[in-house]
Amino acid sequence: MSADPSSPSPVTNAKPDPETEWLARTYRPNEVNLTIRAVTVGMLIGGAMCLSNLYVFFKTGWSMGVTLTACILAFGAFQALQALRIVKKPLTVLENNALTTVASGAGYMTGGGNMAAFGALLMVTTMRPPSLPMIAWFALIAALGVFAAIPIKRQLINREGLAFPTGTATAETIKSIHDAAAGGGASKAAWLAGAAIFGAVLAWFRDAWKMIPGTFGVPISLAGKSLAEWTLSFKAEVVLLGGGALMSFRTGWSLLLGGVLTYAVLAPALLAHGFITSVSYKAIVAWTLWPGAAILVASGLTSFAFDYKSVARSFTGLTRIFSRNKEADTGIAAIECPDWWFPTGFLILGPLVVLLMAWLFQIPWWAGVIAVPLAVLMGFVAARVTGETDVTPTKSLGPVTQLLYGVITPGNLSGNIMSANVTGGIGLHAADLLTTLKTGWLLGAKPRHQLYAQLFGVVAGAAVVVPAFNLIIPDPSVLGGETWPAPSCVVWAGVSKAFSGGIGALLPSSKTAIMVGLALGVALALLEKFAPRPLKPFVPSASGIGIAMVVPGSNSIAMFLGAAIAEAVRRVRPALAEKTVVPVASGLIAGESLMGIVIALLIVSGVIAK
């Protein structure tokens, strides 16, 4: 008797095991991954991008993406080295992936609250810890984040297949630039190089030879003062244009809206009512930081709460992650990082972090013992949220930790800030490694090699970021000024004061501003979540509005222009946009910021007059 052809076959309907499928179809066991040249060039590119991100961070409050720029830059560098006959073999796909992982670990050393915390620490305490212990501090936090990614990698990437959009986009970019038929690699590298040269030359003529003014004012007055005095002017800084081009257009126009409302509406009203006594960026932002910080914190926590399913899965999935896998061994265990690496790394690195917390920041040892496992759990949450949304919620996780430590260690400003640094740093680097592991999963790379690559990167980044910070910020009083607005540092310092010293110590007008900012942050998050789809593009971004209240109006204008230009190109010439927007924006940022670091070094050494 023959089987009913309409009946489903148990074999064909059986869901294939994704790890078995990956081993059979994608994994490339015989191709090189992590090589000496990949590590070396990755550390150089990552160190350069760390410097670039440091400059951008203190200008805008953002740390720009690393992986897409790094893989394009690496491809272009090896193409040039081959043309010069310095290297014989071309960079392979998996070498580029490993190199990009190294670069990402180094380049993101400015994120995760690292520089926000370091800058805020100097702003509220004026203490500057020694360089070597601070290098160890940042490296240890980042390494803990790397090891925290181990037990959740197979669950989030192999089995659940979370998107990790940046990791997926990087995999596609690496494939395309290494595919001769696609023909896109050399073109993207050329666009990036040309934009970088333009940015560097502009910075030199502006800051070294003083042949180009830094700002261009508009001859219009407001409340008896020029718009430039209200910080509403055009800046000759293409780093801001590049940063805007890498944002969504919604964030860009929200920055413009927030900047205009802050400096053309709110600031004149504050002056008229005597809440500020002079017209300057520092005087205005000393008041506006409170509603700005409240908007960022409230919207971030509200959005985080909406993602309760992702948060719940982070914790309910832990039993599955740590339980013994009773399924048939597919051979994947021999390739993945062993599970025992995580507790071993935790037991070795955790006490060192607690020791540094007590020594450098006078955090009680018992409070440090609480901070490390809490930060690892937060890292699990941050990793899943990143995988599902491409946004690592460090702006939400940091204030949660600050609030907790404001309660258990009242009055300890440095402890309040640096405990949040632990949470943000571990969360960011766990999410960053998982993002690059997603790239490797799609390309068939070896996970262990990527973990080694990330550790090389975080060591390089920590070694670069601390001396570079000391170089460009020799005097912490410049933070929060028009030259170095450092909006994230301003926000972290403000939140720390509020949670550590108590809101009761603030002026009544500041308390009112905080309450209004909290309400507005919640309202914007609710609108973003529940507004009808056709109206969502018209809902202002809470991040854009909040950041606009703590950066000069000229920064908001420049970033809006960058976002608007990029959006126009995407709509009119989508093919051209795909080829040029990311490389050109990244090149402008890299060129100007790296030249800015060089000029700062020449000024410190006396070669160039200040």
Describe the protein's architecture and organization.
This protein has 25 helices and four strands. With 610 residues, it is mainly α. It has a domain of 367 residues. The strands form two sheets. It has a two-stranded antiparallel ribbon with strand order 1-4. The longest helix is centred in the C-terminal third of the chain and has 31 residues. It starts with 9 loop residues before the first helix and ends in a 6-residue tail after the last helix.
Secondary structure layout:
Elements: H1 10-13, H2 18-25, H3 36-60, H4 67-83, H5 93-107, H6 114-125, H7 131-148, H8 150-159, H9 165-177, H10 185-208, E1 215-216, E2 221-222, E3 225-226, E4 234-235, H11 238-245, H12 249-272, H13 281-306, H14 308-316, H15 318-322, H16 341-361, H17 365-389, H18 394-408, H19 413-443, H20 447-472, H21 487-501, H22 508-530, H23 542-548, H24 553-572, H25 574-604
Antiparallel strand pairs: 1-4, 2-3
Can you summarize this structure?
This protein has helices at residues 10-13, 18-25, 36-60, 67-83, 93-107, 114-125, 131-148, 150-159, 165-177, 185-208, 238-245, 249-272, 281-306, 308-316, 318-322, 341-361, 365-389, 394-408, 413-443, 447-472, 487-501, 508-530, 542-548, 553-572, 574-604, and strands at residues 215-216, 221-222, 225-226, 234-235.
Short key terms for the protein model shown above:
610 residues, mainly alpha, two-stranded antiparallel ribbon
Report the end-to-end length measured between terminal Cα atoms.
93 Å
Q: Low-confidence runs (pLDDT<50, min 5 residues)? A: 1-12
Q: Looking across the biggest beta sheet, what order are the strands in?
A: 1-4
Structural class: mainly alpha
The total count of helices amounts to: 25
Shape: globular
Question: From the alpha-carbon coordinates, what is the Rg to the nearest angstrom?
Answer: 24 Å
What's the rounded overall pLDDT mean? 81
Helix content: over 70%
SSE sequence, one letter per element: HHHHHHHHHHEEEEHHHHHHHHHHHHHHH
Share of β-strand residues: under 5%
The major β-sheet equals: 2 strands, antiparallel
Number of strands: 4
